[in-house]
Write a structure and sequence with these properties.
Elements: H1 3-33, H2 35-39, H3 47-83, H4 95-117, H5 123-126
Length: about 140
């Protein structure tokens, strides 16, 4: 039951790492071919690799954490089979802990995006629609 998700995670981790390495090699070869093009930019030639790396590391970390949980479950199953306990352990699920962990991860990614990468000051931030409450029809009445 857990072998299929484990295989999917292996493929995902390999794909993420391969895509990052391939992108880095492409940018480096493009820089070596057209150095004048990168001299006109405000940032060093490897800035694109750094951004790509930041946005690749987050799903990679998530996949590795899930893989560690799967490995632990598979190890528990093997130990249960060796000990002859077919019933297994009755582990109650704690969805509130999972929700808090996912929320914390998303919040930390957002902090990195706004405070370290500062996408709100770039073309990425300019293309996102920012509305206020009054723009969508809510108005204060005498408050």
């Amino acid at each position: 039951m857990l072998k299929k998700p484990d295989g999917i995670l292996n493929i995902s981790i390999s794909s993420l790492m391969g895509a990052f390495v391939g992108h880095a090699i492409y940018v480096y070869l493009d820089y070596r071919t057209y150095p004048g093009l990168y001299d006109m930019q405000w940032a060093p030639w490897y800035t694109g690799i750094l951004y790509y790396g930041i946005f690749t590391i987050v799903p990679l970390i998530i996949a590795v954490i899930i893989k560690l949980f799967i490995w632990r479950k598979l190890k528990q199953k093997k130990e249960e089979v060796k000990s002859g306990n077919r019933m297994g352990r009755n582990i109650k699920s704690r969805p509130d802990h999972l929700c808090i962990a996912i929320f914390t991860l998303c919040l930390s990614v957002r902090f990195v995006e706004y405070f370290l990468i500062e996408t709100d000051k770039t073309a990425i931030g300019e293309n996102v629609l920012h509305l206020s409450w009054s723009d969508i029809g809510f108005h204060r009445n005498g408050l």
